[in-house]
Amino acid sequence: MPRLPPSLFWRARREISPMAAQLLPACRDLQSAANELRWIREHVQDTKSPIPAGLRVWQLVEKRGRGIPLQYVLGTQPFGDLEIKCRPGVLIPRPETEAYTLHLASLLSQDQPPPSSLSILDLCTGTGCIPLLLLQSLLASHPGTPISLHGIDISPHAINLARANHAHNISLHHLPPPSSSSPSTTRLTFSQLDIFSPSLIPHLLQSQPQIGELDLLVSNPPYISPTEFIHSTARAVRNHEPRLALVPPPSTGGGSQQQQQQGGITTEFHHPADIFYTRLLEIAATLKPKRVLMEVGGWEQAVRVIRLLEGSSSGVKGYGTVEIWRDEPAASFSSSLGTIKEEKVVVGGREVVVRGEGRGRAVYLSRV
Ligand SMILES: C[S@@+](CC[C@H](N)C(=O)[O-])C[C@H]1O[C@@H](n2cnc3c(N)ncnc32)[C@H](O)[C@@H]1O
């Protein structure tokens, strides 16, 4: 990252405020520093505290200036129409995750005939942003339809925050309180579980008997290899967001990877960043969701995940549609041939539709 010239700090002090100069190392340009200073001031105005407002602004500016992400400083991040609480120790929701969540909700809303019920499983739920936004969208598109959503994460901090986010968005009237719809109509649960635990699938089958009718399995798992984490991840992410959310462990506590190592039979190599996808595909093979959406960290990983589909260990069959979604899956883009909504590529002999604009962001499977 290039160093900032002293003249920029003088301009920030002169043209905006000394506090903007303090924000510059994190914000990098005057416009961003001015915006963030405004948001910090608005946040302090809107929240009650025994600490005097001026001092609080200084405290928050000082934190932000040290590189702590704005979402942890302010405590929230917009996600669709929701406001998601953010706390250190739990990954901050990203705009690309929001984009595919909204696209998924729009696909589910187009199903004909409309489903008589909807069941959704979100593995590695973090703040709970994905099931919460799906719930909000589906309540609007499927009024009266029974909807069941289950978010799972290994981290107790994440599960506590996901539950707090549900309550927070009810208090903001972004989501209905449980009492306003009968308990059998909408069910949102968050459970602390390791997705590699051998007891995961029996637990899911037991806790959600209708899981055989799973409409969507969605997951944004840790997908950055240890090497990429050190060399290519932004410093703010590396220093302040939880490694548990970003980097798969070298060996997992169960599932296929461990069987491969313990049994010593399978020598199949998996990229160290892809460990979670092997497990997600195993889970999909058992639960047979109608749709699967797995976030990935770029085009190369998307291609590797599609190749895993063909692997004997995954056993995922019957998904007629395999797609790669870019960052904005609903966007069309202009080319010399006109406006294009989708492209086609061939991966491992299989035709794959590529949607939207930006970097490869997700692999989508559908049997609908
Ligand atoms: C990339 S974050 C995604 C969070 C959230 N879904 C989002 O999109 O913002 C990955 C999440 O996986 C969780 N996680 C890591 N290992 C796990 C495991 N073995 N089982 C379940 N969750 C796990 C982390 O705690 C983290 O919250």
From TrEMBL:
Record keywords, A-Z: Methyltransferase, S-adenosyl-L-methionine, Transferase
Database matches in CDD domains: AdoMet_MTases (cd02440)
Cellular component terms (Gene Ontology): mitochondrion
GO molecular function term, any single one: protein methyltransferase activity
UniProt xrefs under InterPro entries: DNA_methylase_N6_adenine_CS (IPR002052), HemK-like (IPR004556), N5-glutamine_MTase (IPR050320), SAM-dependent_MTases_sf (IPR029063)
GO biological process: methylation
Keyword Protein transport: no
Alphabetized NCBIfam families for the sequence: hemK_fam (TIGR00536)
Protein name (record): S-adenosyl-L-methionine-dependent methyltransferase
Organism of provenance: Chaetomidium leptoderma
